[in-house]
Design a protein that fits this description.
The complex is a heterodimer of chains A (about 500) and B (about 325). Chain A is mainly α. Chain A has 3 domains: about 50-145, 3-Layer(aba) Sandwich (abc type-2 transporter like fold); about 155-280; about 295-490, no CATH class. In chain A, about 75% of the residues lie in helices and about 5% in strands. The radius of gyration of chain A is 48 Å and the shape is rod-shaped. Chain B has a 6-stranded mixed β-sheet, sandwiched between helices. With about 325 residues, chain B is α/β, with parallel strands linked by helices. In chain B, helix 3 (about 95-105) packs parallel to helix 5 and helix 10 (about 245-260) packs parallel to helix 12. Chain B has 2 domains: about 5-215, P-loop containing nucleotide triphosphate hydrolases (Rossmann fold); about 230-310, no CATH class.
Chain lengths: ~500, ~325
């Protein structure tokens, strides 16, 4: 145990006495924190150059371009579509947007074309999203105008219908009144048959009288006249009845029409959404992030931690192993009764202590610079960091022992680190890797550690939920340890 | 006295295609100072590192107390000490820290560790430099630090590879005195050096390594008598300086010695002495021819010697 501790003490002393090493170990974490918190202190894209081209710029097009500038994008009006697309190929602009001539709200030819460099995968999609947002805003404005017009027309129709409904009701009331008046007129027509009967009775009575010829003649005339009147009344009564019947029919039709209008009005009234914006965007997307995205470093923290563990562990351990192997003390270490296991574990613990110091400094820096609730995430995150650091340190020790010169060791360790980063989703989305390779990438310790830290830091996942991932990570630790130990044993340096 | 304390039996060592030792047989007695003589690149350091188990023989056996070293490495590491030519310690650590570190690797604890370190600092004369970083020590001090490191565990056998190389006469004398003192305490010492006067001065037994074999082994006086030589330098010349190969070795050796003289590491010689030396070389050619006929060895260019000559040139 004493020789083990002595090896650790020696490693730390050597690192501490090298000014450059001490600088790297102590200052670099703080510099990283500072740079990350300053550089990623917003959630926007910065310094984006947008090339735009249109045969003729309409007010809508100009509004969209102004929108780009409001987003801190620099828009450059290109002379031709070819210039615009070439500017993307040459890297002058990040994206080229080609607008149709006279982009207008009539919607006849409103196709907007995007030209992006797909090789810059990460930024390409982000750019398309950002630029599309501006186009969508303009598109929504056009839609809004169109629907507003439509709504206005419907409102106008509704108003007219309301007015017409009143008129029809008034007409129905008028007809009803006519019908009543006709009824009353019919009722008010005297019963002329009774008069004729009375006149006939009077004529019979008069015939019994002498010298009643003149009276009878007059009564006959009266009877005739009465019959004429009766006939006329009958005719009038018949007309009134007919009028009455017809007015009843018209009224029924008007009632029917009124009912229909009521139905239409009820239908119109049942339309609760009367705002054009709500019709244009019936489902308004409201994105609520699952993490606080006000500061990018917050959701970058898991990746940042993994990168620190990866670089710190792999590169530091590989250099330490290489220097030990190339150092003049290698021979004496070899001839002491101290096992390879002890030396290997001592180098591991030394590297781990240095990494721990880096993390303490980094977390302290984060707390001071951003008031980040670091203590809340330390629990499960530290377990993940410990296991992943162990894996990467043993990987570094394996590389350090396996290769002869320090230059090659640094080159190989950086290559290994780059490879793991490249196949981790940090640079290129894992989803863009072919399916058959994705299953291998899933076992990349960087991927596993990154996912676990995401869940632990951003979603506060309890440690028991992380156990499967931690078990895989522990498996990689065993594999890398075996490789490192074998490399140390198998590649003894012959002095 | 155990005369078969350490034995090399038919030891062959080959690094890839390069045959360095081809059937080396030698016995090293207990409690004595044994010197291994050989031209640069003959494989002296390889022999030493095989004794301590750092290299394993391609064929043959290296025995310590009749046990194979390869099978008893842990015990060998606890029993043997090794002072290297270039020093084997941490430059960034101080003298005391180096001693403490290697002492702990030898499982020496607490006060015993501190006491042993202090004792050795006094023994090698580095008390005043105990807090000096090893990288800031002079060449002689580094040699002494390395010697102290190799003795932290009080080894029964101390192996020293070129312990006086690159040292001025005063420092050489100090180191030789230290070696004698170490031996007086019962430690078996095995060493190599280019300066044969030293061998003459301190060794109880020498072994001459030539053409990948030990061709002479025993008391220096008897060997000198066998070659009718006044000192070991003369024996060396008579064995090695023959024909074109011998001339190359001689020229390389002359260049090295000349440089050492320029640096005042070894005392200058007069022109007469130099002429006499050249005369001796002519005689050596004849003697060497006779020896070669005896051993029926075919003379072949030695890659190692060529490489070393180029380096020295």
């Amino acid at each position: 145990m004493r020789n083990f501790l002595s090896c650790i003490q020696k490693d730390l002393r050597i690192i501490g006495r090298s000014r450059f090493s001490a600088f790297v170990a102590l200052i670099i974490p703080l510099v990283v924190v500072l740079l990350v918190t300053i550089a990623f202190n917003s959630n926007k894209l910065h310094g984006v150059q947008v090339g735009v081209y249109s045969e003729s710029y309409s007010p809508i097009t100009n509004n969209i371009i102004k929108g780009f500038e409001d987003k801190s994008f620099t828009s450059v009006k290109e002379k031709s579509m070819e210039d615009c697309t070439n500017s993307v190929r040459e890297g002058k602009n990040h994206i080229c947007v080609v607008f149709p001539p006279e982009l207008s709200s009539d919607g006849t030819n409103n196709t907007v074309q995007f030209y992006v460099d797909n090789s810059q995968i990460n930024i390409a999609y982000a750019l398309i999203d950002d630029v599309k947002t501006e186009i969508s805003t303009a598109s929504s404005a056009i839609s809004l105008d169109l629907v507003n017009d439509l709504i206005n027309r419907i409102q106008q129709a509704k108003k007219t219908l309301e007015e017409q409904k009143t008129s029809i009701t008034a007409a129905a009331v008028g007809i009803s009144s006519i019908s009543e008046s006709a009824g009353r007129a019919e009722d008010s027509i005297p019963n002329t048959a009774r008069v004729i009967t009375l006149l006939n009775d009077a004529k019979s009575s008069a015939s019994e009288l002498s010298d009643s010829g003149d009276i009878q003649a007059k009564l006959d005339d009266a009877i005739n006249e009465a019959k004429k009147i009766d006939s006329s009344f009958n005719s009038t009564s018949s007309s009134i009845k007919s009028l009455k019947n017809e007015s009843v029919l018209v009224q029924a039709k008007l009632d029917n029409l009124g009912g229909s209008l009521n139905g239409i009005l009820q239908d119109l009234n049942s339309v609760k959404v009367t705002e054009a914006k709500k019709i244009v965007d019936p489902i308004t997307p409201e994105i609520k992030p699952v993490v606080d995205e006000s500061k990018s470093w917050n959701f970058l923290l898991p990746t940042l931690l993994v990168l620190m563990v990866l670089f710190g562990g792999t590169v530091l351990a590989s250099i330490m192993a290489s220097r030990e192997k190339r150092g003049r003390a290698y021979f004496r270490n070899f001839i002491t009764p101290t096992s390879d296991f002890t030396f290997l574990m001592a180098m591991y613990v030394s590297s781990l202590l240095i990494l721990t110091l880096q993390f303490v400094l980094m977390f302290a820096g984060l707390t001071i610079a951003t008031n980040a609730p670091v203590l809340n995430i330390l629990g499960s995150a530290s377990a993940i960091l410990f296991i992943s650091a162990t894996a990467f340190i043993f990987l570094g020790l394996c590389i350090g022992h396996f290769f002869k010169s320090e230059e090659v060791v640094i080159l190989v360790s950086l290559s290994a680190v780059s490879l793991m980063i490249f196949f981790s989703g940090i640079i290129v989305p894992i989803e863009s890797i072919l399916g058959q390779y994705q299953q291998f990438v899933a076992y990349n310790p960087v991927v596993i550690a990154s996912n676990l830290l995401h869940r632990a830091i951003l979603f506060q996942a309890p440690i028991k939920d992380l156990i499967p991932g931690l078990a895989i990570l522990a498996g990689t630790v065993v594999v890398f340890f075996v490789f490192a130990f074998t490399a140390r044993k198998a590649t003894k340096r012959y002095i | 006295m155990n005369t078969e304390f350490i034995q090399l039996k038919d030891v062959v060592k080959q690094f890839n295609k390069n045959l360095v030792l081809d059937g080396v047989n030698v016995s090293i007695p207990e409690g004595k100072i044994t010197g291994i003589i050989g031209a640069s690149g003959e494989g002296k350091s390889t022999v030493l590192k095989m004794i301590i188990g750092f290299y394993r023989p391609t064929r043959g056996d290296v025995m310590y107390l009749k046990r194979n070293v390869a099978d008893d490495l842990y015990n060998i590491n606890r029993t043997f000490g090794f002072a290297t030519e270039d020093g084997s310690f941490y430059d960034s650590l101080t003298v005391l820290e180096n001693l403490h570190h290697f002492g702990r690797l030898y499982k020496i604890k607490g006060t015993a560790l501190k006491a042993r370190a202090k004792e050795l600092l006094g023994f090698v004369g580095l008390e005043k430099a105990e807090n000096t970083k090893a990288q800031n020590l002079s060449v002689g001090m580094k040699k002494r630090l390395d010697l102290a490191c190799s003795m932290m565990h009080n080894p029964k056998v101390l192996i020293m590879d070129e312990p006086t190389a690159d040292l001025d006469p005063l420092l050489r004398a100090q180191i030789l005195s230290l070696i004698k003192n170490i031996n007086k305490k019962g430690t078996t010492v095995i060493l190599t050096t280019q300066l044969l006067e030293e061998m003459d001065e301190i060794c109880d037994q020498i072994a001459i390594l030539c053409n990948k074999k030990i061709i002479e082994e025993g008391d220096p006086g008897k060997i000198k008598a066998k070659y009718n030589a006044a000192d070991l330098n003369e024996v060396f010349h008579k064995i090695f300086f023959k024909g074109e190969r011998g001339n190359k070795v001689h020229r390389a050796r002359r260049r090295k010695v000349s440089k050492l003289r320029q640096d005042k590491v070894v005392p200058p010689i007069t022109e007469e002495q130099e002429e006499q030396e050249m005369e001796n070389i002519k005689e050596v050619d004849e003697i060497k021819e006779a020896i070669d006929q005896e051993v029926h060895e075919e003379e072949t260019p030695d890659e190692n010697i060529m490489e070393n000559e180029e380096e020295m040139a």
